[in-house]
Task: inverse folding
């Protein structure tokens, strides 16, 4: 039998924001590649559990609110007691708050930054310590955005957080690469999820966005799965600190 460099059999992937959207798409893709999934989130994950078990993989839910750092120990110990090990961490959970610059509130700024970058960094730190202590060739995958590259409109905290995600991905990769731990990112384009519901409900913005996507369509959560499997697998063992855009050509335009 040929060795499949994308095979994730025997690996355990912890995916935050697993109940819906891109996180759900990533859970299913990693499960199809053979991984067991620890889904982390604050909402019911039955839908994702059903999709993961339907492809023959195991799914373990860990309830946690990622707004504050109180969740860190719960996530790592919850994953280890459920699945026995961790090989892959996907930092997917994220929020967006829209307002004009003059109206942008401190609480919106703090919530977005705390969820999208503060928790992402410190959860990665916990995973990295576990990988180092247990000599595990771990994989950390951070979900960035087109607003890691661009300014966006009416979402300054989101832009700040996602620009930081791309930067911290490089910073962590530099330090962890010598230990055979890969840290990389995925920058989704415009994907049909709750995150973009307000944009898609605005006929003008929706049409403007669609007209700028060379692929001629919005992305689906399943479109992100291939890059996630690549970055979670041995196929990416010499890929460090990069962020892969999965955007239908948005950035090439
Ligand atoms: P989504 O459907 O809104 O999913 C966001 C996920 O994060 C949900 O599972 C959500 O849980 C979870 N989450 C948010 N705050 C949380 C908290 N405090 N504790 C636990 N879980 C929390 O949107 P999505 O598009 O799939 O977003 C996934 C990631 O992709 C985000 O980082 C987003 O910024 C990024 N992204 C999305 C797009 C796009 O076009 N959709 C483009 C670029 C990047 P609940 O359901 O409980 O809120």
Result:
């Amino acid at each position: 039998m040929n060795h499949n460099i994308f095979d994730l059999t025997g690996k355990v992937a912890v995916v935050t924001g697993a109940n819906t959207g891109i996180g759900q798409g990533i859970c299913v893709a990693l499960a199809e590649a053979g991984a067991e999934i620890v889904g982390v989130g604050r909402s019911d994950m039955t839908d994702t559990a059903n999709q993961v078990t339907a492809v023959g993989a195991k799914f373990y839910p860990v309830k946690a609110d990622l707004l504050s750092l109180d969740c860190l120990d719960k996530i790592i110990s919850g994953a280890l007691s459920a699945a026995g090990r961790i090989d892959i961490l996907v930092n997917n959970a994220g929020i967006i708050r829209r307002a004009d610059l003059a109206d942008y509130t401190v609480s919106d700024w703090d919530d977005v930054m705390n969820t999208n970058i503060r928790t992402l960094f410190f959860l990665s730190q916990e995973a990295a310590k576990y990988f180092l202590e247990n000599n595990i060739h771990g994989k950390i995958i951070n979900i960035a955005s087109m607003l890691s590259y661009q300014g966006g409109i009416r979402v300054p905290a989101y832009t700040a957080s996602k620009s930081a995600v791309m930067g911290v991905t490089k910073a962590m990769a530099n330090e962890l690469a010598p230990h055979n731990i890969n840290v990389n990112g995925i920058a989704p384009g415009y994907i049909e999820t709750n995150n973009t519901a307000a944009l898609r409900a605005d006929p003008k913005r929706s049409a403007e966005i669609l007209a700028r996507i060379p692929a001629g369509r919005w992305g689906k959560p399943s479109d992100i799965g291939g890059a996630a499997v690549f970055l979670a697998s041995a196929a990416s063992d010499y890929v460090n600190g990069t962020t892969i855009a999965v955007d239908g050509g948005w950035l090439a335009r």
Summary: Residues 106-133 form the longest helix (28 residues).
